[in-house]
Amino acid sequence: MEFKDVIEKRRSIRKFTSDEVDNQLLVELIRLATLAPSAHNRQPWRFMIVKDDKKDMIVSMMNEFYDKYKDKVSKTMPFTASVIGESKALIVVFRDGLKEDRYLDTLSIGGAIEHICLGATSMGLGSVWINDIDPVKEEIAKYLGYGDLEIVSVVAIGYPNQDPKPRPRKELNDVILK
Ligand SMILES: Cc1cc2nc3c(=O)[nH]c(=O)nc-3n(C[C@H](O)[C@H](O)[C@H](O)COP(=O)(O)O)c2cc1C
């Protein structure tokens, strides 16, 4: 696929088939992520592939948190939890332990996450970048054995079982400042 076509074709995918995703493909997505630019070439990202029971545990953490604190968190949290439940794998994206340069490192990690999403599209996979784990991200990091690192986002991945139309974008005239 032409690179521009990959960009045009990428959508957030929230429905997945029951087909498993090979770990090899997920490792390839992580390799692509590590090709992203990073401030001072710090490469502040760390990645973990999470599947099966551990992924289900993350879904339970999100649902339990939402049931307790529904007035305080995003209304989309339970839906996002169900999307994670239906996906076949998560790539959990952590920031390394460094406390300085958090802003630059977050920018760098955002680029790496987009490489994962575009890479997934180019490989016929569906993905969705997820931040609704935010209220439970410390709990998840501890559960995964990396309580000393900060989770930035997770990407849910699987084979797409939907072909959504492009979501609306602002007009170019509204985003190009003169
Ligand atoms: C930082 C970030 C956080 C996001 N968090 C979520 C999320 O928690 N749940 C979800 O379903 N989609 C999430 N999305 C996906 C957006 O909703 C989606 O990108 C947007 O609606 C545009 O749709 P498109 O990706 O299909 O173009 C997130 C996207 C970004 C960049």
Total domain units: 1
Named once each, the bound ligands are: flavin mononucleotide
* SS-derived structural category: alpha+beta
Based on the structure given, which CATH architecture is correct? 3-Layer(aba) Sandwich
What general form does the structure show?
globular
* Uncertain stretches: none
Task: Determine the CATH topology.
Answer: NADH Oxidase
Give helix % range: 40-55%
Q: What is the CATH superfamily label? A: NADH Oxidase
In whole angstroms, the N-to-C terminal distance is 34 Å
Question: What are the secondary-structure elements, in order, as H or E?
Answer: HHEHHEHEHEH
CATH top level class name: Alpha Beta
Major pleated sheet: 4 strands, antiparallel
- What is the total tally of β strands? 4
Number of helices: 7
Spatial ordering of strands, largest sheet: 1-2-4-3
Return the average pLDDT rounded to an integer: 97
Any idea what the radius of gyration is? 16 Å
β-sheet strand percentage: 15-25%
Features:
4 strands; binds flavin mononucleotide; four-stranded antiparallel beta sheet; 178 residues; NADH Oxidase; 44% helix
